Amino acid sequence: MFDTLRKVFGFHEFRPNQERVVRAILDKRDVLAIMPTGGGKSLCYQLPAVMMEGTCMVISPLIALMKDQVDGARANGIRAAFLNSSQNPDERDEVLQRLLSGKLDLLYLAPERFILSHFREILGQVQLSMAVIDEAHCISEWGHDFRPDYLSLSDLVTLFAGIPVAAFTATATTRVQQDILDKLALRNPLIVRASFDRPNLLYDVRFKDNVEAQLLSLLKSNPGKAGIIYRTSRKSVSDTATMLQKKGIRALPYHAGLSDAERKGNQEAFIRDEAEVIVATIAFGMGIDKSNIRFVIHADLPKSIENYYQETGRAGRDGEPAQCTLLFAQGDIPKVRFFIDSIIDETERERALGALSKVITFASTSVCRRRTLLDYFGESYPHDNCNSCDICLGSREVVDATLEAQMLLSAIVRTEERFGAGHIVDIVTGSQNKKIIDFGHDRLKTWGVGKAHDKKYWRQLIDELLAQQVIQKAEGLYPTLFLLPKASRILKREEQLNIVRILEKKKEQPPAK
Ligand code: ADP
Ligand code: ZN
User: Fold this and answer.
1) Which of 78, 193, 249, 386 is within CB 3.0–4.6 Å of 73 for a Cys-Cys bond?
2) Is the pTM of this model over 0.90?
3) Which part of the chain is the Helicase C-terminal domain (predicted)?
4) Probe ligand 1: pick from 1, 2, 5, 43, max atoms within 8 Å of CB?
5) Can you say how many angstroms the Cα of residue 308 is from the centroid of all Cα atoms in its chain?
6) How confident is the model at residue 503, as a pLDDT?
7) ipTM given for this complex
8) Phi and psi at residue 326, in whole multiples of 5°?
């Protein structure tokens, strides 16, 4: 085993967990290995594939990456090939011939090929050493990337009873993990979970008030560096990319509305460092093997913690420092909720809501971001201070904002809970705009009481009141604000409203060399 590691792969030692996985497979035991991106999953099956008799079949949804993987394996002298829809019949026949004559150590397959019954017959005539299921979370509807084709893998262990099955994934909440085990019916598998901590990533959540200006300033602090900006809608992707281009930044859009050729071209320009920034919907990134991504910015709310972890996880795969910034505003929540409300399937809708509320908690509480992420994956973070997130790097100050909260609350009460955040802020800051005058709100006792602070301050305080469930926003067309029970306790000073303010950052993480 060590001999093969050195001679075939040129490595002198295993990375954490690799040895256990390799040994289990060599013992013909099933495996479920959950390792973060960059953890070295390929070696875990390529090494036994070289050592064992027969062909190792690797089922992977990432057609675009198969060629690279095969080229990489061949460069190490491994007899590898792939079969997928990108090939013409002659190319496929050639691979099948090599497979049938026992001249392949590794065969990469797309799951849709595995469904075909004639293909299964062919596999029946071949000596297989093992079956590998890459991106195994695709079999779970609880995961972030469910692929119905993967369900066909559930009879793998009965069809090929004599060979071990090894499933790999970089995502797995305990629920997805259990689902993978159940759906694949793995037999007394070795389960390996590597730590999900990515120590070189700095997590930073910022109050989103002016996206364009904030993006530009973030890009300015990472000049010429490669990065991804995630946005929710295709339109905002295009708009943001255009805006950045106008500012002289080599940014390209990526979303499902572009033609295949355009998407592919933009992706490749990014991979080859011809474009520094890619602005993308979540359609971008799975299987992107670009190691020098220095920053990932979420300009809108991610769909779930799992998505957030995956998307930020694309940064810093080379182990060098990288920055992950989430721009967060309570005002974004209704947009996402509106979208979720349109989901017809009830379980699906509730799942989406639950996922959203976890993201909101992640972004709006002042707990170490790293700890919150790892908690989500059932891993406890052993340190008090990670020294690499906005919470741990900032010194915090608890401020009593009861008086200011009372100003907002009484403006809401005096206008009979019939107005939205913008108007309430206009009242306390003493605006004389048309709406204020028309409603006679300049005659309210609370008009202008909060002039000491600017609008941004009041906006943030409203967000804080929403997050602390002092007030709530009405659903539907008019997002008017109304009071929750806690509000009357604050108004009567029976309860205090504290806000945690993150003071000046100690120091930004130094840019990578
Ligand atoms: P994953 O599929 O888990 O994202 P890869 O299999 O692509 O990760 O491996 C990530 C990188 O780590 C690759 O460049 C690979 O060559 C390297 N690598 C894997 N195992 C070792 C090892 N034991 N020693 C040194 N480098 C390794
Ligand atoms: Zn932290």
Assistant:
1) 78
2) no
3) 210-360
4) 43
5) 3
6) 59
7) 0.97
8) -110, 125
